[in-house]
Amino acid sequence: MLVGRKHLAKTSAKPGKTQTINHFLINDQWFLVDLPGYGYAAMSRSANKSWPRMISSYLLERKSLANTFVLLDSRLEPQKIDKEFIAWAGESRIPFSLVFTKTDKLSKGALDVTIRKWTQTMESTWAELPPMFATSATNKTGKEELLNYVGHIIDNS
């Protein structure tokens, strides 16, 4: 959605299919990095143990990391695994933003409920909430806001 190339990132109907870190150079200025998801996936037991190490190593050791976009399916309640990852990112001082995806599949009211639940969940333990974006790859909702935010990050790096 962000760079206007439909098949840039590898996707699959089967969760857990993408098992690599993919780097995409954007405008010869910055990298968009696609990490494997940490959520539900059908995979071997050894892969299930190595993914969290691979993701955490990348995020903790990447000196030029400016932001991590945590993608959350807007149709779902706050998931335990997402809350755990967000808590770990905060404790590890990894800069992140929340990106609610698939918003075209919800009514405005249902989306507001999802965002309110996340806000309430986080306000119970966070002094300051991360930036949040509502997006849809289908109708490009949130694209401009995300690109403006990335531009702001680049300008201040």
Question: What attributes characterize this protein structure?
Answer:
two-stranded antiparallel ribbon, three-stranded parallel beta sheet, 4 helices, globular, 157 residues, Rossmann fold
Enumerate the spans where pLDDT stays under 50 for 5 or more consecutive residues.
Answer: none
What's the overall geometry?
A: globular
Strand content: 15-25%
Number of helices: 4
Rg, rounded, reads: 16 Å
The CATH class label is: Alpha Beta
Structural class: alpha/beta
In angstroms, what separates the terminal alpha carbons?
A: 23 Å
Q: What is CATH's topology name?
A: Rossmann fold
Taken together, the total number of domains comes to 1
Helix percentage range: 25-40%
Give the oligomer, counting copies of the same chain as homo and different chains as hetero. Answer: single chain
Please tell me the CATH architecture by its name.
3-Layer(aba) Sandwich
Strand order across the largest sheet: 3-4-5
